[in-house]
Amino acid sequence: MFETKRHRRLLAFVACTGTMLLFAACVSAPPAPTTSLNEASLAIKAAERDDASHYAAAELDEARQKLIKADAAVVANQMTLAERYADESTVTAKLAAARTEAAKAAAINEEMSRGAEALLEEMQRAGDKE
Amino acid sequence: MNAYNVKYARAPRMLAVAAAISIAVAGCATAPQSPEGSADVRGKLSALQSNSNLASKVPVEIREAEAAVVIAEAPVGKNVALGEHRIYMADRMVEIAMAKAATRYAEDQRAMLAQRRDKARLDARTHEADMAHRQVAMAQSKAEAERALALAAATRAASNEVEAAAKAKEMQRQIDVLQAEATDRGLVLTLGDVLFATGRSDLRPGGNSTLDKLVVFLNEYPDRNVLIEGHTDDVGSLEMNQTLSQHRADAVKLYLTQHGIQSKRVVASGMGETQPIADNLSASGRQQNRRVEVIIKNPSTELLSNTGGAGDDQFF
């Protein structure tokens, strides 16, 4: 009887301790923000595909640096910081893509209006020659 | 008096309480402060939103940015890093909205630019076509003018030719009418002795149709002068024949001057019997030798070239 009681107490203690340990582990080491990290590297790749290194080099570089910091934070087991860096990397890569698009659009417009100007000028010259 | 004192003594106390309460309320309101820098992001977003040209093009992005700004404005207490992170995110979202708005705006402008460019192209082409047309027209009118000139020249030449031909033809006709013979001395018109009675030098009336034709011819061609030569056969003395031939030539000259031909255009000489054209042995030969030859000289030859120095005035 006594033995059984002691045995039970021991079991309960072990279970309690195990649970507490498990909790502790959970609190101190959350999982790495894999989704955010993946999103960031996808966004950077997309920006690179759009030739952001030419049109928005600073933003693309910043996005890369943020991702590097995020990875470093994961290694340092600072998952909250890692997630923030990853999110910042994503949004900056998206900004790089958006600015690239805007720059391309502006370039196209400039080219078009230059074409029209050139035609008008040419006509003017042709008219002068008469 | 007491009541008054109490009343006035309370007033400052009530004021102090009210002030304290209002300060407390104000404190409550400002207590959970928005992170530093969130105002800047809000200002940036407001600027974009107030630009209706751009804001209307990116409603989704603006809504997302707005949400990010609201989150950034939420108090974070002492978690400065979280506040900075949220501001960073919000700022980037606003920037993305701005960039996308700029892109859309540029795309919208493109239609207008394309229209302008197409119009410029069309104008250029029209202009080119006009120029080409004008050049063709100029070339054509030039060619036409040249053709017209050439035609006029040709017409003139032709009319000159025609005129010359007509003149030549007319002259030939006149010559034919006179039954003159073209020689190197000019046109020679031989008047037979039928004009004169034998031994006489006055012209027979009625036999002068040949001379009338000569008058017409000389009037028609005022640059032609005539030499009139009288010839006889060998019947009679040389001297008498010389005189007779001279008189006969003079008679012809008189006829011409009486019909309006200037005397200076006519030279009359008597050649006597010295230049027979046939045998004087036969009657028909002698008849051929009795003659007056009218030589219509070619233009610009001297009147007295073949007269052997015999002037008409000498014999009058």
Taking the sheet with the most strands of chain B, its summary is: 5 strands, mixed
Number of alpha- plus pi-helical segments of chain A = 5
CA-based gyration radius of chain A: 30 Å
Distance linking N and C termini of chain A: 123 Å
- Identify the quaternary structure here: heterodimer
Task: Tag the structure with descriptive keywords.
heterodimer; A: 130 residues; mainly alpha; 2 domains; rod-shaped; B: 316 residues; alpha+beta; 8 helices; 5 strands; 9% strand; disordered C terminus
Q: What do these coordinates show?
A:
The complex is a heterodimer of chains A (130) and B (316). Chain A is an all-alpha fold and 130 residues long. Chain A has two domains: 1-30; 31-129. In chain A, 90% of the residues lie in helices and 0% in strands. In chain A, α2 packs antiparallel against α4 and α4 runs antiparallel to α5. The termini of chain A are far apart. The mean pLDDT of chain A is 85. Chain B has 316 residues and is α+β, with helices and mostly antiparallel strands. Chain B is 63% helix and 9% strand. In chain B, α4 runs antiparallel to α5. Classes of the chains: A mainly alpha (130), B alpha+beta (316).
